[in-house]
Amino acid sequence: MSENIILKAEDLDGYLNETDRDNISRMHSFYDDAISSFRTLAAGESNPSLVKKETDKVIGLYESMGDIMQEITAKEPHLHVYSFETPTIKHGEVSRLIAKLRDARTGNDEFVY
Question: Among 24, 41, 48, 92, which residue's Cβ finds the most Cβ atoms within 10 Å?
Answer without folding.
Answer: 41
